[in-house]
Design a protein that fits this description.
The chain is built from seven helices and two strands; from the N terminus they run αββαααααα. It is mainly α and 165 residues long. The chain has one domain.
């Protein structure tokens, strides 16, 4: 056990006060790790999935105006992704862990985000549709019952809980 403490102590900088700080919290360094780089790429891929899900390129003014109705949905979806990206970035800056548990947690977060990216868009589309009385956003479906909508929201809530855990 003592060897492990010596190994950890030997990897610490000689002068901890020389490490950069963010809001009085000592950062582990400024270089990005491979895990951080991968997570950033996965978030970029998730944003790309949202862009691709926006359907086709508008070819007339009516289609362009219809596409603009989904902008609030897209912005809200990006904001949620940004919140989780920022949280992971801050955690990585502070701790810089690349052990098996940290990698597993990061992978689980990314897998969950990628699974729930389309439900995220659907939830915000339905929210904006409801708030605006159908002026913007998109409804779930004409065939969706109240019970099915509640189930969709419950599944989405489980996804948010899983990502936040």
């Amino acid at each position: 056990m003592n060897e492990r403490h010596e190994e950890i102590a030997s990897t610490l900088p000689v002068d901890l006060d020389n490490l950069p700080r963010l809001h009085r919290f000592r950062l582990r360094g400024m270089q990005m790790t491979r895990l951080e780089t991968f997570i950033d790429a996965a978030f970029a891929f998730a944003i790309s999935m949202l862009v691709i899900a926006a359907q086709q390129i508008p070819d007339n003014i009516e289609a362009l105006l219809a596409a603009f109705k989904n902008v609030p949905t897209f912005v809200c979806s990006i904001a949620v992704l940004g919140i989780y990206w920022r949280g992971h970035w801050l955690w990585s800056r502070r701790y810089g862990l690349e052990d098996s548990v940290s990698i597993l947690i990061s992978w689980a977060m990314i897998v969950t985000i990628l699974i729930f990216i389309y439900p995220l868009k659907a939830i915000f589309g339905a929210m904006w549709y409801f708030i605006s009385s159908g002026q913007i956003g998109q409804p779930f479906s004409l065939h969706t019952t109240v019970s099915q909508a509640r189930t969709i929201f419950a599944i989405y809530a489980l996804g948010l809980i899983a990502i936040s855990a």
